[in-house]
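Subgroup meeting minutes
Present: P.N., E.W., G.H.
Scribe: E.W.

1. P.N. recapped why we're keeping a running log of single-chain structure predictions: easier to compare across weeks, and new members can see raw inputs and outputs side by side.
2. G.H. added today's entry (531 aa).
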Amino acid sequence: MKPQIPDDPDWDVVVIGGALAGSSTALQLLRAKPGLRILILEKSTRFSRRVGEATVEISAFFLGRVLGLTRHLNEAHLVKQGMRFWFTNETASTLADCGEIGGRYQVRLPAYQLDRAVIDEEVLRLAQEAGATVLRGAKVGRVSLKPGGPEQIFYENDDGKQTANARWVVDASGFAALLSRQEGWHVPNTEHPTSAVWARWRGVKDLDGLELADKFPEWAAASYGIRSTATNHLMGDGWWAWIIPLKGADVSIGLVYDQRHVRFPKDGSLGQRLKRFLGAHPVGAELLKDATCVEGDVLARSNLAYSNTHYFGDGFVVVGDAGAFIDPFYSPGMDWLSFTSTAAKQIILKERSGEPFLDLVARLDGDFVKSYGRWFSAVYRDKYDYLGEFDLMRTAFRLDLGLYYLGVVSQPFKRGAESLSEPVFSTPPSVPVYHLMRCYNRRLAAIARSRRERGKLGRTNARRRFFFGGFTLAPSSSWQVLKALGGWIGLELTEGWRSWFGSPGTSVAAARLQTQTGEMPPGSIKPAKAS
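Output recorded in log:
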């Protein structure tokens, strides 16, 4: 049924984009202030499947405890069993030979593997039930911003060109980043030149199935938990791939690579090239042996990382991917959505209640600019230098995950949902942790570059497993962080000293030169030539 647009074209809020970022913002606003007049403009008549399926603990809290979707998540999606990582080198010929990092038991806190089209439709439906007017097939072309409003939104639908006026505009346009590109706020992250290729697959082998258990009984018995519904990662030098199961037996599998280190094959269809690349890893070869891509569901994107110079102002808020994206690794995009949507709600409600709000706008705008820069610098800068190293990633993962639990995940569980308006590394207590994470990430990258220079990449990758019991929000989990710090110190004393002075190993420029000349860095998995 076509929605009835009031004759009066003025709205309290116009939301550009009806997927999760936009609809969750509208839903929160309407639950807090039911009388708000909100128009959601969504260009699609039906959501298509998209990446961003895995949640982590912050986004799971947001979906379950803020939006109240726990029943829907349990019925329509899969419970996620943490993260697992698989490593290889020239001596590993089978899945059981590969190095493995992951939990020994089931997870402690909820997270989910999502079919994004399904949850997007569900949250948009809830927003409409709460009172939002939803107009689908509406493509926004331009927004005229005016501090204090009214903001003018120019869009087009089956009825032709239209204009909506609103006190607030919420840009939830995703990678299109409508407002930031229009206003010149969009900043490509040229320090992190990554690309991705992904597809939906059918016929992927079950990591917990009888076929693999019979083939590799010792390997199957080593883990007490479920492997298949974790986000499984294939790890290589300068690249990684995700394997995410979805409700209904389809599996999302995608490759992310640093363009300075890796050349993606050029011959064949996109799906064939992706399968050939991943098939050079023993785990990928085993799981994808009889798998096929879902026709028409193979996509690619280059230069993934970007940010904004502004996220909030007097009359506009930018939420989710419309504002920034760092990297799919560790699934930070859904956390960013949770933080930006919560902050947007706070700003709009404060203004609509007649309270002074500009100081809040200025503070949050600065906090999110700062958060992106620190988040990238602490976790992602140069991480692709050591992604393929079992022992270095074991140290990094334990520290990254432990500090995420103790410093980030703990906040909403202990203080409530309003803590989600404080993005990562934006508060004074988080600054020392930011410096610590930036330090060990830099050092592990330097150690990996030194190994590359000496031809020692991947030497610890085969026939090794690291299983851990998982983190909790209790202070006792800090012991695991301390043990991981001890492991880092051990790495520095045994080989890190090589890069304390002078050259840290092969530079990014040298890696780029190797790519341009067609020579893969030592230790890389070389995709087979097209047949």
